[in-house]
Amino acid sequence: MSDPVPATTPGLVCAHHHLYSALARGMPAPDPLPRAFPDILRSIWWRLDRALDLDLIAWSARLGALEALESGTTAIVDHHSSPNAIEGSLDVIAAACAEVGVRVLTCYEVTDRNGADGAKAGLAENERFLRAGGRGHVGAHACFTLSDETLDAVAGLAADLGVGVHVHVAEAPADADAGARLADRAQPSWLLAHGVHLDRVLPGTVVHNPRSNANNAVGYGRPARFPRVALGTDGIGADMLEEFRFAFALARADDPTASADAVWAWLAEGWALVPEAQHDRVEWSYAPMDPWHLAYTPGVRARRVEIDGEVVLDESGPTRVDPGEIRARAAEASARLFARMADLDETGDD
Question: Which of 179, 211, 321, 324 has minimal CB crowding within 10 Å?
Answer without folding.
Answer: 324
